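Ticket #4471: structure export looks truncated?
Reporter: QA, pipeline team
Priority: medium

Steps to reproduce: submit the single chain below to the structure queue and open the exported record.
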Amino acid sequence: MGLVVAHLLLASVMFFSIGSAEMSSKVGVCYGQLGNNLPSPQESVELMIKSLKATRVKIYDANPKILKALKNTDIQVSIMVPNEIINNISLSSQSLSDQWVRTNVLPYLPGTKIRYLLVGNEILSLPDKSIWPNLVPAMRKIRKSLKTLGARKIKVGTPSAMDVLQSSFPPSNGTFRSDISESVMRPMLHFLNRTKSFFFVDAYTFFPWSSDPKNIHLDYALLESTNITYTDPVTKLTYTNLFDQMLDAVVFAMKKLGYPDIRIFIAETGWPNGGDYDQIGANIYNAATYNRNIVKKLTAKRAIGTPARPGWVLPSFIFALYNENQKPGPGTERHFGLLYPNGSHVYEIDLSGNAPEKEYEPLPKPTNNEPYKGKIWCVAAKVANTTALSSALSYACSQGNKTCDPIQPGKPCAKPGSLVWKASYAFSSYWSQFRKLGGTCYFNGLATQTIKDPSHGSCKFPSVTL
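Actual output as written to the record:
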């Protein structure tokens, strides 16, 4: 080997090592804005840097105030093209994509370090299938706009939920869904491979664990296990946590389509710090344990990777910056934050991975790692809009099964003039009947779960028992 060649090789190895170490140390945070009590963008950026030591941030739009607040910081930024305009970008001329990039990206460069542009959010999980075939063409157009307009260093991708997989167990059986495998995933992987971008995936161990806690050990889902392992019968690879299992299922799915080397970027991961009574394991102890463990894994000085990809760097975003009080859905959706809206920590965490765990304060003991044993009711929330509450009452009563018979005039639960009372009965009755079919105690934020029996006298409210 010639001396010059040896020096070049050594330099490239050193560059790869430094680059990998640098990338591996960058754990970011997802900055959602679905709250009516959140700090300003300027305050939020300060909290990211000083309180959490985040070095990346993902925002779910191209919010000008946030992008300006991020100017002249070292935070790498990921922004998102809204779901609603993907069809238009795909089906229109290149000029629409160019205009979006000119308006939402170029004005902030180079002061704001925009590094990733994500086209849509979990598009392939949406029930509206008409957008699916337009996803990759829109990605191509956005990429072409970035190149043409001089922002070629920005990588283009799209976040996928784990339900893009038809099979994920064992990991070696990882396979994309048949309805998207050839039509969407193959061209997408070709695009990501050609542009040296990432497969962005939202990977939450909380959801598979909470849906099957009898067969998945909690410690295995929290990356806390010391003696629980799973060995894939095909590859003989041994797994020590559920997170690695999930990622390797994606690796094998990509491999089956002929793309074994596309890098993975964790677009979202996390654990809820609270939730509803019927949601087990959503507590501060588990959230802190999971997120601290995932940060420790992802920021290891020598990248750990996964069993199928040992040593590979996994850049990532933790979800989320704040508990967001206006997020729809079950209670966990509003409790993924690392911070409360007042800026204080839900629990101590350092996204740089440098803080010694022994310096953290003790965590509150979990109380809901097993299903709640008593009865649960669904009642109207204290702060409820009268017009909206009346509509929700009508909806609950219209679902059949005599849901609201007991609140009709002359019946035991009739209470003339009390909308909150009637709605509470209707919500509890609806939920008790339809929960197993997917019905929720939410009603667009107008309902809440309670373990205090709202029954009165001869009027007995239906309840749910887990």
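Status: closed, not a bug. The export was complete when the record was re-opened. Leaving a note from the reviewer for reference: Confidence is low (pLDDT under 50) at residues 1-24.
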